Write a sequence for this structure.
């Protein structure tokens, strides 16, 4: 399910924590890509008959000729210069699909030889501040 952008003063960000993280990264001088799309599974055609129900019909329909769309994932922040991904997650519902999607994304990074990237999943502003401090330490070593 695609998340809706809030219409209050968060700008392009979907949550207060995302906004705080983006603003903090920007204030600290870090360049990042926001919600850069990664294709974690290519689309395909299923070779055998495929029938499914649709919301508007009680009957199953033959959808065999339809292409199965790719699966994409857009982490909140990607800092390519530092090989860092940041996915802000406040409270995650018990039955949320995020843990599964995140594992698939991690596997995609591994399979794409990007497993040298550091991953962060901050749940609050204090954890975002810790990430900024870590980035500052790495920056001083450069």
């Amino acid at each position: 399910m695609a998340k809706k952008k809030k219409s209050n003063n968060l700008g392009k960000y979907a949550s207060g924590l995302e906004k705080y993280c983006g603003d903090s990264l920007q204030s600290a001088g870090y360049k990042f890509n926001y919600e850069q799309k990664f294709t974690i599974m290519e689309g395909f055609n299923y070779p055998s008959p495929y029938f499914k129900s649709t919301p508007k019909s009680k009957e199953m329909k033959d959808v065999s000729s339809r292409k199965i769309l790719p699966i994409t994932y857009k982490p909140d922040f990607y800092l390519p210069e530092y090989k860092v991904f940041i996915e802000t997650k406040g409270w995650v519902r018990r039955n949320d699909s995020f843990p599964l999607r995140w594992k698939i994304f991690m596997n995609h990074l591994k399979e794409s030889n990007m497993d040298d990237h550091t991953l962060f999943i901050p749940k609050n502003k204090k954890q975002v501040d810790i990430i900024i401090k870590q980035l500052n330490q790495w920056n001083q070593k450069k």
Notes: The radius of gyration is 19 Å.
